[in-house]
């Protein structure tokens, strides 16, 4: 079974990025055979603390590291907070980037998307996030930017997206991620 873990960069109820994550999970369930998707919650992590890290002091961190290490793909959907990904996401990436030399992100395939109620879909938050991911050795999926714009109009009462173009773009990103894993030969997919 190929495993995808999903992460939203927003912690608020009714988040459009969490709706993207819910939509990605549904797309995987409905359209991808032999693939499962689960959601990780960066808000469960404490603020990064190097002393706590050295003492292996957080079960939530260890659990998230294990889950990312076991996954073939991580997909992140980020809002733009003043042109960048929110601190909760950077915090999660900092935890996942350690222990030094043993990061579960090193060589991990990661896809980035974004959403906002505005016309640009928070696409301006993606480059900074990609830069951090590159810094920690992740294999960032090459794909034209996928950004869900005008999310307020598109979101359904179920807190997901049904728009055909939106679904096609998200599915395309997922397929590119799985192709990246295959090409990199980093999972059972390559066998
Ligand atoms: C925002 N928002 C925002 N939107 C945008 O398109 N560009 C931006 O630079 C910002 N900056 C920003 C900063 C802060 C601190 C907040 C709280 C909000 C608006 C943002 O796109 C909107 O609140 C989204 O709904 C946030 O994403 P979620 O929570 O819906 O996933």
Automatic annotation (TrEMBL):
Its EC number is 1.-.-.-. It is an enzyme of class 1 (oxidoreductase). SUPFAM superfamilies: Flavoproteins. Residues 3-151 form the NADPH-dependent FMN reductase-like domain. InterPro entries: Flavoprotein-like_sf, FMN_Rdtase-like_dom, NAD(P)H-dep_reductase. Keywords: Oxidoreductase. GO terms for molecular function: oxidoreductase activity. Pfam families: FMN_red. PANTHER family: CHROMATE REDUCTASE, NAD(P)H-DEPENDENT FMN REDUCTASE LOT6. This is NADPH-dependent FMN reductase.
């Amino acid at each position: 079974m190929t495993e995808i873990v999903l992460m939203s960069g927003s912690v608020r109820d009714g988040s459009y990025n969490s709706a993207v994550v819910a939509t990605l999970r549904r797309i995987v369930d409905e359209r991808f055979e032999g693939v499962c998707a689960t959601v990780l919650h960066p808000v469960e992590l404490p603020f990064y603390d190097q002393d706590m890290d050295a003492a292996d002091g957080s079960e939530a961190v260890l659990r998230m590291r294990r889950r990312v290490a076991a996954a073939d793909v991580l997909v992140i959907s980020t809002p733009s907070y003043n042109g960048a990904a929110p601190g909760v996401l950077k915090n999660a990436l900092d935890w996942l980037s350690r222990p030094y030399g043993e990061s579960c992100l090193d060589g991990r395939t990661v896809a980035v998307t974004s959403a906002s109620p505005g016309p640009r879909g928070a696409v301006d938050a993606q480059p900074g996030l990609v830069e951090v991911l590159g810094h920690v050795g992740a294999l960032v999926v090459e794909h034209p930017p996928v950004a869900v714009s005008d999310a307020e109009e598109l979101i359904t009462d179920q807190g997901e997206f049904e728009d055909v173009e939106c679904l096609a773009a998200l599915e395309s990103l997922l397929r590119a991620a799985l192709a990246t894993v295959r090409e990199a030969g980093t999972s059972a997919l390559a066998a």
